[in-house]
Known about the structure:
Elements (H helix, E strand, L loop, with lengths): L8 H13 L3 H8 L2 E4 L12 H6 L4 E8 L4 E9 L7 H48 L3 H15 L3 H11 L5 H5 L7 H16 L1
Antiparallel strand pairs: 1-2, 2-3
Helix pairs in contact: 4-5, 4-6
Amino acid sequence: MSTVASSSPSARRWDELQHTLQQGPCVDAVWADDTYLAKDLAHDPRWPQWSPRVAAQGAGSVLAIRLASPDETLGALNMYADRANAFTADDVDLALIYASHAADAMSTAKLLTGLRIAVKSRHHIGIAQGILMLRYDLSQEQAFDTLRRYSSQTNIKIRDLAELVIETRGLPDLEILERGDPTRDHDADLPDSSAQESTSTG
């Protein structure tokens, strides 16, 4: 858990203290799926380590609202005031509306980021397939199957493996994997691939 944005140094400091102590309305809002209103932090017993410390630093009251999509918890919106009893019932209702819009925006941003990563990964995998097809005289299907098997045997994610292929222009153990024998001598398999590489580049 971390603070991604704050309107003041004090708000960030009070949030980060919750993360350190693993105690406070923000932590509870995220993990307990609820809204927490502390009307008077100086006399609120729910967070005995956190409340007195932030009250001594000038926090009077706080409202913490869970931010969530239908699928997951995204975080919490925390609003601090420098006096006790600062938040009215109308304030809470309005904050819930803000939190709903914020959660929608965060969910959309996360989805778009995921889509961009997926598109980039697919693009890199396609380039890696092309490199393997050219270098080792493979079909498109064989090139992808080689990536898949190499990924499985080395525990490297295919998208990371694709970037490695792009960077190195090949896979050192390609022939070993094609023969399905990871114990074969690597050097004994290199001449064939070297000959294929010479042929394709010469």
